[in-house]
Design brief:
Layout lengths: L2 E10 L2 E10 L6 E7 L7 H12 L3 E4 L12 H13 L1 H16 L4 E11 L1 H11 L6 E5 L21 E7 L7 H13 L4 E6 L12 E2 L4 E2 L2 H18 L1
Parallel strand pairs: 3-4, 3-5, 5-6, 6-7, 7-8
Antiparallel strand pairs: 1-2, 2-4, 9-10
Helix pairs in contact: 3-4
């Protein structure tokens, strides 16, 4: 078994994006593809490592680029500046993640009828928004993601039935997604006809899957038990979905 990878360029308008594709060349034929949406810092070694981990499970991992040109932030301020335009224009965010999924479907290793998406933090919100568009993906997973619906929800989203199965893996003590937001999300997804689950981990803050997360004053801290449990939940979910 050998995990291979390459950079894949695709465009959102005139902006070139750079995704990281990983697959196992010991697996023959096409296989399910899973897009991975990054944290607010941009596509990094963290998401690329997750793409390789998915490849070891027999999937194609595709760490997407939501900022274009492979841009990354190097500080809290830079991260916020990169993320904020997409947070303020959720239709634009949905356009970017849809373009990434379309690029994933075009890769020769991928079975375009078996597509999923998962994301971390900002990326968790991103894949939930992908599902909110009614996209033709089989499932999405949010890891310590943000739950708030787009501002245009009342105008547009209720017209979309969510066909993707949804799994949210959440730290109950995450200050960026308080417990009441879980109830609001559950009500929203139920109204959209979704097949959904929310797993909440007690004593767990934001960013619990990232070993480098160590800002408890900001509510961000790695939790090895929640990391392990959420990864197993992910494995079970993709087995069910595909």
């Amino acid at each position: 078994m050998a995990i291979q990878h390459r950079l894949v360029e695709y465009k959102v308008g005139d902006i070139v994006c750079e995704a990281y594709l990983a697959w196992d060349d010991a697996v023959s034929g096409q296989r399910p593809g899973i897009a991975i949406a990054h944290t607010w810092a941009g596509r990094s070694e963290f998401e690329q490592g997750k793409a390789e981990d998915l490849a070891r499970l027999g999937y194609v991992g595709f760490a997407v680029d939501m900022y274009g040109n492979g841009r990354r932030g190097a500080s809290v301020e830079e991260n916020a500046a990169l993320m904020q335009p997409l947070m303020e224009d959720r239709e634009l965010l949905q356009l970017w993640i849809t373009a990434a999924v379309d690029a994933l479907k075009q890769q020769p290793e991928v079975d375009e009828t078996k597509i999923g998406a998962m994301g971390f933090c900002f990326g968790g919100l991103t894949v939930l928004d992908l599902a909110r568009t009614g996209a033709d993906v089989l499932g999405v997973i949010s890891f310590h993601g943000l739950f708030n619906a787009p501002n245009n929800l009342l105008d547009k989203t209720p017209a979309n039935k969510i066909s993707a199965k949804i799994l949210c893996l959440h730290g109950y003590d995450d200050p960026m997604a308080l417990p009441e937001s879980m109830v609001e999300l559950g009500n929203e997804l139920t109204a959209a006809g979704a097949d959904w689950q929310i797993h909440a981990y007690g004593g767990t803050l934001h960013g619990f899957t990232n070993p480098l997360a160590n800002m408890p004053d900001m509510g961000v801290l790695y939790n090895p038990e929640a990391d392990r449990r959420s990864w197993q939940a992910m494995v079970n979910f993709w087995e069910e979905v595909f």
